[in-house]
Amino acid sequence: MDIIYQLAGLAGLVCVIILIVKMFQTSVLQGVLGIVFFCIWPLIWGLMNQSKPGVKKPALILAACWVIQIALTATGTVQMPEFGSTGAGG
Fold first, then answer.
1. Tens digits of per-residue pLDDT, 53-67?
2. How many CA atoms lie within 13 A of 5 on its CB side?
3. What is the rounded (10 degree) CA torsion for 16, 19, 21, 27?
4. Which contacts of 51-56 are long-range, i.e. CB under 8 A and separated by 24 or more positions?
């Protein structure tokens, strides 16, 4: 399940970048807000502006990726590493 979690994260990152580009095409202020509030503002903006060309699919995919990651984390399927662990098993 770790691979599903990581693929959802990668797909979400790509969608965020696509949405930030669309935000800069709309307004520089929107693009700057998209960079400052990296994941949450592009999601909100994308869901609010679904009628604009090229915005609906990345926004919905980003929302789905968030749901997948939250569900996997909440069910305990994916274990988050402990703070300060090196992953070396020791």
1. 999 999 999 999 999
2. 14
3. -130
4. 52/22, 52/26, 54/18, 54/22, 55/19, 55/22
3-state helix, strand, coil in the chain (%, to 5): 70, 0, 30
The residues near 88 (Cβ < 8 Å, ≥ 6 apart) are none
d(CA 33, CA 36): 5
Joined tokens for residue 20: 């930030």
As given in the structure block, the two tokens for residue 49 are: 């502006």
Give the C-alpha separation, 32 to 20, whole Å.
Answer: 8
This prediction has a pTM of 0.81
DSSP state letters, 60-89: HHHHHHHHHHHHHHHTTSSPPPPTT--SS-
Token pair 């929107």 in the structure block, residue: 30
Amino acid at 62: L
